Every structure is written in structure tokens, then in C-alpha cells.
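Write out the bound-state structure for zinc ion.
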Amino acid sequence: MAIDCLVLGAGQEVGKSCVIVSINGKRIMFDCGMHMGYADHRRYPDFSLISKSADFNSALSCIIITHFHLDHIGALPYFTEVCGYNGPIYMTYPTKALAPLMLEDYRKVMVGRGEEEQFTYENILDCMKKVTAVDLKQTVQVDKDLQIRGYYAGHVLGAAMFYASLGDAAMVYTGDYNMTPDRHLGAAQIDRMQLDVLITESTYATTIRDSKYAREREFLKAVHKCVSNGGKVLIPTFALGRAQELCILLDDYWERMNLKVPIYFSAGLTMQANLYYKVLINWTSQKVKDTYATRNAFDFKNVHSFDRSLLDAPGPCVLFATPGMISGGFSLEVFKHWAPSEANLITLPGYCVAGTVGHKLMSGKPTKVDLDKDTQIDVRCQIHQLSFSPHTDAKGIMDLVKFLSPKHVVLVHGEKPKMDLLKARIKSELGIQCYDPANTETVSFPSTHFVKADASNTFIRSSLTPNFEFLKDEAKAMAPLEVRDGRVTEGILAMEKGQKVKILHQDELLTMIGTEKTEVEFGYCFALRLCSLKRVLPAIEEVSVFDENLLLSVLNMKLSNEVGLQDRVGSLEVNSFRLSICKNNSCPHRSNGDSDGSYEGMFFCCNWSNLDMKLAWRVISLLKNMDSSVDLTNKMPFNNVER
Amino acid sequence: MVNLCGFHILFDCPLDLSALTIFSPISTSLYEHTSAAPSSDSLDTPVVGAMLETEKLLDRTNLIPAEPYYKTVERLHLWNASLIDVVLISSPMGMLGLPFLTRTDGFSAKIYATEATARLGQFMMEDLVAMHMEFKQFYGPNETSFLQLFKWEELEALPPALKEIILGKDGTELGSWMPLYSAADVRDCLRKVQTLKYAEEACYNGTLIIKAFSSGLEIGSCNWSLKGPKRNISYISSSVFSSGVAMDFNFQAHLGSDVLIYSDFASWNGTNCVGDENSCSSLVTGGDCSITGDNEYTRELNADSLLNFDESSEEMEKLNFICSCSMNSVKAGGSVLIPIGRLGIVLQLLELFALHIDSSDVKVPIFIISSVAEELLAYTSILPEWLCKHRQEKLYSGKPVFGHEELIKEKKIHIFPTVHSHELLMMWQEPCIVVCPHWSLRLGPVVHLLQRWHADPNSLLVLEEGIDTDLALLPYKPIAMKVLECSFLSGIKLEKVPPLLKMLQPKLILLPDHTKPYFAPLSESLPCLFYLEDETLRLPNSNNLSELHIATDLASQLTWSKMKNNELTISRLTGELFVDNGKRYLLAEKRPMPYEIRPLVHWGKVDLESLLLALEKIGVKGSIEKVKSDDGYGSNVLNVFEPGKALIQVKETSIVISTSDKSLASLVSDAVHTLLDGI
Ligand SMILES: [Zn+2]
Ligand SMILES: [Zn+2]
Ligand SMILES: [Zn+2]
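---
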């Protein structure tokens, strides 16, 4: 039994996330992303490694998509519509609702750039029809054995970590996640579980971030300063996620500061996305969620759609334009118009893929940007880099790994040098094996496996009964008696030819093999002198009113510092050991000549089974030593027993 | 109430709202018409059964003019609340009595409900509390119970219909009347509810895995699947195969359970199915729309058509019928009053009304009057995960899941918290269509509007069939307004039950006793057991052995020994038993073994001669002695004299060693054990 992780994408890099996990032979594809930095075959995961014959339907049990970012879903329409995968696909409701917008937006940009079309709009729609939407924590039975379940991941609306289990083997794939809540989403949440493998993103493997609020304030200040000086603010974003998050920030700020400067959304597309956010408001942070009844937070008051004619209109404004990173399309067009003016501001996300205009703007302070061989743009505007990110920082990753304490950790979705550092920390600080395979590499682990056996009712009942143990630290005389539930399950495993393994209670075994238990018992009957008993119970003198039970209780009290006997009427007992007052002068447990009717003392009869040998002898020696002088037995006058 | 794995589980805690009808509503002279229109009973009031056959006829003076009390589940008050471990709420209706339970001393059970059920239930309870305030204001802070107003004789003298409601059929239900809970009780109650998503696994006490699956009845309503280490149980409450609003009945989730408790009684129309052991679902009724009259529907159903047949189109027909009747009334200048408590129906009606109004030339406003309507409607547009496929498709295509949001924006629908709200008085126009909560026609806006319109023959009252209409309408008599009684699908149709049960293949089905005539003939193919109200039914012990999961490291440590004469291999197994997520695990003991490992059980025979030989081998000497047989110790004993004194008696199933010498005792016992089999 084993778990194998074949990394097809996002191995030691960010982009085209795709991991094939095989649990005890069943294969799941986690994410099916594309790489924004490439335009050739490297943009997609190498699907041929899944199945040489391209028979993906029998090679995979299901596909799970964690969220709508293109580096996690971008290759899905290609894989289903072009490669022909027809099996089940799972993603959360918001991901299913929002992914087509994301994919279509990207497809248009691709086509706009004159690239070869990888899939059509119809492909996107057909692909989404194959998707089963799931709710958080909903346990989905993929087939008879395989179970999956999503957990809230923060990051973007609908992002989920996925748990998968098959038999006793279990694992979690995080996708992208955020361990701290932000303005519009909550923090990732997951149950504590027994896991063999945790596959986690590691975008910020070494970064530790402080409070987000300070950085949000910085952003708002920069925007406010720009518009109050009559400048225009360009916020290049993708259609979903960051756009809504920033918009909530701005809309709220505008309201509070009573600003009248218009905020625009570039295309109808982004406005429409807000409708989805309104309906799916339950997937946002608690604070935003609570606004649904009064005024849905995604009912932006100050936001309008942008018209191309406003591009060179005078006066300040804020514009959200797609795509993010200024990789082409409308945001590039706006950039061309606005970048040359010092009064304007362009905000950039924390991460831009190499090759995009955004990336060029981030590296140093360029005064000119080359768009292509012939076009060069003067950049005189201000650049504000957004330093808040929807990814967890290193502390968050460590917290999650520590919380889940899996047997193995696999790092993906990060940069190699930083991942190495994090890997070393996980090994040294948490003592957990950690790996960071490159693309196309496979790592394998043994999976948890339990041997299954049928347990009989008697066995279960006996195991569930508490078994109190009375312990005494003998080194410290005054130490209090410690009582603990020393419940150890004791049973018998029986394998009969051709039958399932059974677990029985020992008594049941005897019935099964048709025999009876033979007890090996011990008996010892001994006397204590009256004078030593008198010290314990002075009233013992008045033999007529002498109460045996009282005597036993008092003795028990004396012994209670050493052993815990239970006071039953007429005897003291613990486990199989039993002590009682013996009046049978011909008691067989008395040593020859040990019994004496005329002897002034009392006989105590003890019996026990071989399990309690040590305990029995200890009690006996304690009782005998009550007569603080010497061992009683040696001094006793021996008389013959009357028979 | 079900006892599973030693846990007491209560399914649903509703209120018997129909009992509210014994109280008289607050009359507002404002709307009282001095000259009541002639009653047209023959035309409008439905045929009433047993009620009229009694010698005493009811009139409105018989109703009790007091602050209403509320009737909880029969005999629930007799239960010791602290004995309940788990409460499972299947629908918002099943939650209305819950605050009575949660405020009881000693109540500590874990309550589970789906997220949507909890929220919708909260809306209903908040509305109930708010509407009840009207009574409080009317009667003042009266501390005495309505029951104290009566002497026993007076109670006896009440008309039988009322008496039966108050006392129950056998006169034992007096104790289930309670004064209404407060808003604080409701809040407190909801804090105690753990909310779930569909198919979310909740683990109670590490042992029971509880899952809710959609039942299709209402948004968020569910059936339950309970999985313990030994049995899994399915609880099927009122379910609808395909609903136009809520997520469809997920019956596949209940396939192959050990026990299936079937508790959907919507189809037992006419028979008294209220107050069974598990759920007192007094409000579910069945049959078909009394006007469309398509209850002759008798199609052969096999398992396939069970799944394929679209019930929602039939429901749509009924709703469309209501709309067209309403439009007729409006055209005649009358208003339409729709007091319906079922959210799914209301949401569909609103959409249909908009269509009907658009396609006709009459422009009539729709007013929704309820203290919680605004929030409730806003809430319905943010829970796409709980809706049927067709509504979810709307989400994916970027359209609002329900039409009402747009209609409110377009000012075709107006929402008001109460009939007294200022905005309502400003907007009010007649004719109009009013949708408001039902509350047995005793609480809230419906009371005022009925008093206003009851004598208008052009107006229309749309009621859900099932409540005692005659009693409910009593205070508004004589009634001239038209009454349309309509029943909506609120459960599995009777003819679909056997194929469903057959398909689910449970090992055992539990059905209420009154269904025996129907199911007993089918018992060959369906393993049924029938339970009686208030009686405990003990299920045959399941022979299932519990599965135990043994950790591999522990399993590899086992030392196996073969039994001499048969093909049996045995091994002693020691470890710590854990119960987690409904599975039992046996893990290797963490602490070091404190004692030496020696066999714990022995069997076999020992004879004195071979014992003597075995002892001699380890240097213990003794002799066999005959003991007199009258001492009661059997026959032979072995007397050891070297190295110390000991007496060994060999009996049928035991060997007794008596000695004062500790080390000699161990020597002898070792020798004895070599002669026995043991493990
Ligand atoms: Zn992402
Ligand atoms: Zn990513
Ligand atoms: Zn004795």
C-alpha cells in the first residue's frame, strides 16, 4: 500500500499546478493549470505521463480543481475537450460559477495577442458541464472506496483545500491558501486529521508578513493622493478576486471619506462578476457575509462601467482593467495612454510573471518600457506595488504543517531556493519528512494501513470497561495514591482456516475450542496476634461485641497508603485477591501446625490467582509486619489441629 | 426517539400549530363590517368531516379569548431532557418547539441541523415571537396560564372538538401546553445548534457519524444517516423527489442501510398520523389540489419512473392554477390573501405571479407582509448550494437564482414588516395580492386582512389543505370570500414508497403501526417492523461484529501459536482501544510493558503423578496423600515437604496451591503451568 505523487506542474516553480496522486492504486489529478509565462507546449502539464495511450478516463478516478486561478484551472478545457478526459471533475460552487469567466477572459486575451486558440468558448462551456460542484465539508463518495472533501482555503472566493482518503490512507492537497483573514475572505480552516501526505503551496516559503491592514492603508493613501491631485489610477487585475477585494476596500473608503471621484470597471465582464460575488457572499469573510440582508457588500455604490471614450477625458478617476500584470488587452491599452503622465498612478500586484509589462515595471524604476520592437512607452507615472497577497506566508505554512502533523510533506508552487529553506525548517523544527520534487518527478510513501478483524461483542464490552489501577510511588512514603484507568485491551486473535480474522474475549476462545478454563489458585491462611490487632482496633478486647467487618475496614484503612483494597462485606478484595477472616480450624490453606484453636489471635484467609501473585504477597507481608517486631509466623506457638 | 449505540437520539421538535386555532384572534373593530354579507357556505367552505357530526356546533364564542399557549410534541415533556444525547432537526418546521427543549434544566444534548434549516427556522421563530407580541400587548402581562382560567368542569363542557385539541384523544396532553418562548430563548437555542452542510460528517462522541442528505421538501431540509461501529441507520422524513426550489431528495445516499426508519407520513391523508414516536409533523398533509382534482393519478411505477418522473411539473400546474384564480379575483375587484408558510411555494408563486401579471393587462401590486420577509428573501438569494439543479444553473449563467430580487427592484413586489408600518399605509391599494405567514390564521397580518376581507365575495383566500379549515376560519364567519384549498406535495407519494424501499434495500424497515395494513402484505419483499406511538420497540440485536482496525506495527508483533488438534491459530492481543470517527482502532501500547508476559488463561488437565514428576525436575519433593473424602476437598492432595511446606489440591477446573512460602509458590505454579495449555 502506497501513495505516489507525480508532479506534472508547479514543481519548484509557480504556474501550471498539476499533481497526480495515486492512493493505493487510484489516481486523482489535483488542479489542471497552465503556465502564463510560456506560449509553447510548456504552458500545459505533460499529460502524456499520466497515460501513454492517452486513455485518461481509465487512468484517472477524478480531477479536483482547488480554485479558479488560471495556474490551477487553465488547462482544464484543453484536457477535457481536446485530450478527451470524460471522468468526474470536482470543484466548489463558486469555482464552477466563476471559472468560465476567468477562462473566457484569458482566451480572449490569447486570441487578441494573435496566438493560436487552444480552446473555444464552446469548449469552456462543455467542459464546465462535466463539473460536479461541491460544498465545503461535503463528503463526496467518488466511488465505492474513494472519498474527497473540501475545506475553506481563503485565497480567492471558493478556494478550497481538498482531503482525499481511500481505506486507511489519507492526504490533503492545499492548492493556494491564506492563513490570515483579509478584508473580503476568511482564513483557511481545516480539521485535524491523520494524514499520510500533505501537499502544500509554498509561494512565500521564506517571507513573514506583518498585518495586512497597514498595507491596505498604504494603498488607499496612494490612491487618494493621486485622485486628489487630479490624477488617474489604473488598477490592472484579473476579472475576479483581487478586483473585488480592492473594490470593497475602495468603495468602503469612498463612503467614509465622502469621495465623489468615479471608480470604473473596464468591461461588462467584471461588473457581471460582481453579481456572482453577491450570490456567493456566504463564501466570504464573516464581516462581509453579515452585510447580505442590509446592503450586500458587493453592491458597489460608487462603481460604474467604463466607456472607452472616457480614456482621455479630463479629471481624476480610478479604473480596474483586465488583464492583470498588464500582459495585453485593455489594461495595456490604458497603460499606453496613462503611463506618460506624472499625475497618474499604476498599482501592481505583488507577483508578476516574467515577460509581462507588469514584471518590467517592477524591476527597478524604468523610465521607458519596450512593448515590442517598434513601440516604446515613456513611463513617468507613479508605480505602487501592492504588498498584500492572498497567499499564506512562511509562518502560515509552518502552522498548517504543524497543525496537521502529516507523516510526509510535499512542497509545490514555489521557487526552488526558498523551498529548500522551508524544507529544512520542516525537517528540523517539526521532524517531518519533506520533499520538493521538480516537474515530472514522482515521490512515493508508504500509506497507513490497518489490519481489519471482526471483534466480538464480549471483547468490545470488556475493553470498554474501565480498569482502575492503584499505584503508589514507593520511593516517596507520603506520595498520594495514584489512581488511573489502566485500560489495556486484552483479547485473543483467532485465525481459522478460510474465515475472517476474529478478535475474541478469552472466555469465548474456550467455548470455541470446547474446553473449560483451569484456574491455578493460591491459598494462604495465617494468624495475627490479638495484641497487634489491638493496636489497630482497641475495641477488639470486647470479643462479644466484636465486629469482623469493622476490623476489616480498619485494616483496609491501615493498608490504604500502600494498596487499594475494596471493602466488600466480609472481605477485602482487589482483582483476584481476596482476604477474609477464617474461622475454619481445618482450613486447608493453613500450614501444617499453623492452626491452633487455642491460639489467641485471628486467622486471615487469602486466596488469589497466579495473575496477582506479587500483589498478594505484598499484602500478606504488610499485614504480618503490622506487628512491628519480627515476623509473626516464626514466633507463633504451633499446636496441632483438631481434626 | 431512537437509541443507537447507547445514545438517545431525538428526531425533530416541532410545534402543533393547528392547536393554535382554539384561541380567538385579536379582533380589530377597525375592519369589522357591520353588515356581513350573506354566507355562501355551500359554495366555499370545504366539506368537513367528523367535526360537524358532533351534537355541539362550534361558534366563535367558543374560542378561548386568552394569550395563546403552544402545544409541543406529545409526551415530550414527560421525557427527562437530560437523557437526550442528540437532537436532529430535519426541517425548519421541525425546529419550532426546540427552544422549549433547550431552555429545560439539564438539557445538554448536541443539536444538529443544516445551516439553511437553522437559519430559516430562526426566521420562523423570530416571526412567531414578534407576532405573539400583539397578544401580549392586548392581554397585558398576564402571568396565568389559559388553562388556569378553566375549572375542570368547564374544560369538560367545552365543545368536543376543542376538548380534543386541548387534552388529546386520550385526555393526557394537557401537559404539553406551554407559554411561548422569548426572543432570548430563540437566540439561546440557536447558539446550541451545530450547523452542517449536506453530506458533512459530524462525529458525535467519536462514535456516531451523522450526515444530513437533502430531502427536497424545503430549502435545507434533510434526511439523516447515522453510522455507528455496528449499525448504520437511515431516517427518512417527508421527502420530495424533485422540487422546483430545494435540492432534490437524495435517496441514493440511503442505499443499503441496516435499519431504515421511514417517517414520511404526508401520504397518509385522513389517517391520524400526527404524533408518532419520532416526529410530530402535524403540518404535513397530502393528497392533491382539491380543485384540479387529479388525485385519480394511478400510474404504475417502477424504480425507473420513480427516478424519472418529474413531480415538479405537476406542482407547477397547481401553482399556475392558483395564479389564474387569483387573477380572476383581482379582475373582479377583489384582493387575494395567500397565508402560506412554505417558503419554497411562496418563492415559486412570486415568480409565477409576476409572469401572470405581466401577461395580463391588470396591474396589481404584490405585498409581502412579515416581520422577517425582507431578510428572509435576501437570504434566499445567497444560498445557491441548497437549491435544485435548475436554480443552480441560473447561478452558473450569471442570473439571479430567484426572480423576487428583480421584482422588488422593479417595485412589483413590496415588502413590509407589519400591517401597521407607515410605508404600507402609504403604498396600500386594493385590489392587491398579499402573501403572509399562516400561523393557523391566529397571528400576524393574516388576522387583520381576514377581518377586512372575509365578507367580500370577490376576494380570494388561498389556503394549504390539511389544517382544520372550519375551525381555523371560525372567528371570521360568516365568510363570503372565496376559499381555495390547495395541497402541495409534501412527501413521498404512497405508491412510490414500496418501490423506493425496495430499491434502497435496507436490512430492516421501521414503520409506524398504523401503516401495517398497507405494508404487511408486502413484507415478503420488504423486511418491515411496526412501531407504536409512545412505545419502545426493541430491535433484534444485530449480529454484526464490529470491525476493529489493528495498527500494522501491533499486528507484526503478534506471536502466533497453533492449536494442537484443529486448524486454528491464535495469538494474544494487547493494545489500547480507541474510537475515532466511528471506527475502532487498536494501537500498540505506548508505555513499556510493566509485567512479564505470561499466559492469562489456562486449560487442560493435570494429574498428580505427572505433577510430582515435574516438581521433582525442579527440585521440589512431595508425596501424594489420600485425604478423607468427607472434608469436601475431593480426593487426592500433594504434600510438598522440600524445600518448604505446601499443599496442592487438584480439582475439576482448578488447582489450589497453599503455602506460606512465596518462592515455593512460584516454583509450584511454574510446574503446574508446564502441564497446562495456555495463552
Ligand atoms: Zn491562486
Ligand atoms: Zn496558484
Ligand atoms: Zn483459612
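---
The first strand of chain B starts at residue 2 and ends at 4.
The radius of gyration of chain B is 35 Å.
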